[in-house]
Amino acid sequence: MTLTRTSATFAPPVMEARRWLEGVQFTDDRPLINVSQAAPVDPPPLALRRAMADFAVAEDAAHLYGPVLGNAELRSELARQIGAHYEATVDAAQTAITSGCNQAFAAVISAVTDQGDEVIVPTPWYFNHKMWLDMSGVRTIDLPTGPDLLPDPEMARALITSRTRAIALVTPNNPGGVEYPAALVRAFFDLAQELGIYLLVDETYRDFDSRSGTPHNLFQQPGWEETLVHLYSFSKAYRLTGHRVGAIATGSSLLSEVEKFLDTVAICPGQIGQFAAMWGMQNLQQWLAGERDEILDRRASIAENMPKLESKGWRLLGLGAYFAYLEHPFQIPSDLLARRLVAEAGILLLPGTMFMPEGDPDGKRQVRIAFANLDRAGIGQLFDRLQGLSF
Length: 391
Known about the structure:
- The protein is of the alpha/beta class.
- The protein is 40% helix and 15% strand.
- The protein has 13 helices and 13 strands.
- It has helices at 13-19, 46-58, 72-86, 101-112, 127-135, 153-159, 182-195, 235-238, 252-265, 271-283, 285-310, 334-345, 376-387; strands at residues 33-34, 95-98, 118-123, 139-144, 164-170, 198-202, 228-233, 246-249, 315-320, 323-327, 347-348, 350-351, 366-370.
- It has a 7-stranded mixed beta sheet, sandwiched between helices. A 4-stranded antiparallel beta sheet has the order 9-10-13-12.
- Strand 5, helix 7 (182-195) and strand 6 form a beta-alpha-beta unit.
- Helix 3 (72-86) runs parallel beside helix 10 (271-283).
- The longest helix has 26 residues, at 285-310.
């Protein structure tokens, strides 16, 4: 087969990890603990499902094409809620709805880069971002982070060349879990604005940020829409992962270019998913607050259980939203460790090698735990199993 950019791109990590389960038997007294994927396993709340069902039956429009950039009423509601969340003014024309947040990233990258261009991405990176850059022929410029997993704007400045088109950040971070301080996000915005490049800020997990108040003031900056590209997902907030509903907020001129990509790939976002996102924003804010409280409680449980592992040489590098990012104490690399954990501990997690450049020594010492689908008892069992490991 001829080598293409797609064939040269690594396999989807979550799908690869699922293959490690083949042929492995798990017992009732030690079932599989799956902390590999950051996605709700429960369906949307019943009230939302009933509303979606009624919409599907009663509205012919539920089954038809809609506007490429999303339905007008959803874009207006999104703009209103972004404005309220970030204490700023956002217009509906500065928003777009996409078939998931991954598509939002892909559409923006396609609109702002050409083959051979560069995008700066902190490591460890979100693997789907790296995959799309590779498949697009865009060079990923790795920005190493320190022990706190926070990227340094001045290190980024040193990496910028004439081919740099954007810097991509994820906060709260996937895979690291860390919440980027407002001053840090602002420093990256100022850098991007100064140099005339885009700053992509993926805030898929913003609804589970542990901080109160506005997480940053980028939307308040004059001319924000010429620099900032804000990405969001309704999937985590309202358990709509199967319906693929994401969003972009940026300048309307860039959205005109994004529209070309979206029209070619999907024509429009799904109508039922858009309805669900709209209904959720208008009716489920109290429910979502409860979901946030539950995630924050599970985060607290991770912190409470960490002494069990710290005594064995483990180290917590990042914690927040859906993720805990750890350094393991063993001499074997994390990709081999992760495979062995399936059969020997009944744990499926992702190794740091899936979030780092090939051969990076830090990735071989790190693992990601996606804890959002474990309650406190499950988290306790996970840490008990990890504590008992010996390699």
